[in-house]
Amino acid sequence: MRLLSLFIVILLFIPFLLQAEHAFFVIPHGPVYKHIGLSSPKLRYMRLKFGERVEVEGEYVHGSITWYQCSKDVLQFYLPEVYVVKEPKGIGFDDEGNIPIGREVVDRWHSLPLFYRPSDLVPIPQQCKASGYEKRELLLRREAAEVFTKIIEDAQRDGVNIRVLSAYRDARYQSALYARAIGRFGVLQMGVAKPGHSEHQLGTTCDLTSDEIGNRLSTEFEGTAAYQWLQDHMYLYGVSMTYPKLKGKALGYMYEPWHYRYWGQWRWEQIRSTYGLFLVR
Predict the structure, then answer these.
(1) In 36-133, which ranges are E strands?
(2) Distance between CA atoms of 198 and 174, rounded to whole angstroms?
(3) Where is 24: in which H helix or E strand?
(4) Using CA atoms, how far apart are residues 142 and 122, in angstroms rounded to an integer?
(5) What values do phi and psi take at 16, rounded to 5?
(6) φ, ψ for residue 279 (rounded to 5)?
(7) 184 Cβ partners below 8 Å, 6+ apart?
C-alpha cells in the first residue's frame, strides 16, 4: 500500500516538474519574494538583474496580479508576472536569424525572444528624424526604413510634416522605460510594454510626430494634418496604427495615435481582407 501511495505521489508531481518553463527577469534590478504578494517578505540575500534566467514552476493569481513560483539554482521564490518574460516557443526565423516581416506575433500576451535583434537594422535618414532627435541613432529594418522614409517624403510633397521620434528599441532599453512606468503608475500600468513584448523590438515600428505639435509624443497628434494623412494613406504602404481608440481592453495597452507598425504590403492586405481595416491583431 505504501509503495502504491508513493507511486501515485510521483505520478502527480511528474506533470508539475515537466511544466517548468525557462524565463528571464526583465526589470533592471529587483527583489524576489518569499511568498505571494507585493507586501510579503523579500529574500534579503538575493536580488536579480535584467536578463537573469529563472525557472517558472507554478502560476497563481493573487488579486489582480499573476504570480510565478520560480527557482534559480537551488533557491525557491516568487515573482510577479510583470517582472518576468517566459521564453517563447515555436518562432520561425529566416536564414539570417530574423523573424519574417508580417509573421511576428508580439503583444501583451505573446513575446519575442528577449535578446532578439534583427540583423538588417539600418539608420533612418537624418531628414526623417524629429527636430531635436537628429543626433540620436534611430534604427529600422532595411525594408521598414525604406517604407517609412517614403511615407515621410510623400506626405511632405502633400505639404504635411511627419517625423520619427522613436524606432527600434532593444529589450534592455525597454526595461528602463518599463521600470520607470511601473514606478510612476504601478505594476498594472498599460502605457509601456514589458521587455520582449514591445513592437519596437521588431525594428518595423515607429513613433511618429509632427512640427504641428512641436515634435512631441502626445495624443494631440490625433488633431494634426499628419495624423489625418496617415489615416488616409497608411494602408497603401502596409502600415497600421497598432493601438487605436476603444481597443485598450482587447489589446492591453492605452490609445497611442503615434504608434505605427509596418507589416509588409502583402501581409497587411491579407489582414485587412480577412479581419477588417481596424483589427490589427
Answers:
(1) 42-49, 53-62, 65-72, 75-80, 84-86, 121-123
(2) 8
(3) strand 21-25
(4) 6
(5) -65, -45
(6) -95, 110
(7) none
Host H or E run for residue 13: helix 2-18
Cell of 276: 477588417
Q: Whole-model pTM? A: 0.86
Pairing of strands 163-166, 21-25: unpaired
Q: Strand runs (DSSP E) across 92-218, as ranges?
A: 121-123, 139-141, 163-166, 205-209
d(C-alpha 133, C-alpha 124), whole Å? 12
Cα–Cα–Cα angle for 263, 247, 86, rounded to 5 degrees: 65
Q: Over the stretch 86-145, which tens digit does the pLDDT of each residue have?
A: 999 989 999 999 999 998 889 888 999 999 999 999 999 999 999 999 999 999 999 999
Per DSSP bridges, beta strands 256-262 and 205-209 are antiparallel
Domains and CATH numbers, the chain: 2-86 (2.30.30), 121-275 (3.30.1380.10)
DSSP letter string over 229-254?
HHHHHGGGGTEEEEE-TT-HHHHSS-
Look up residue 100 and give its amino acid. Answer: P
Q: Give φ, ψ of 268 to 5 degrees.
A: -65, -40
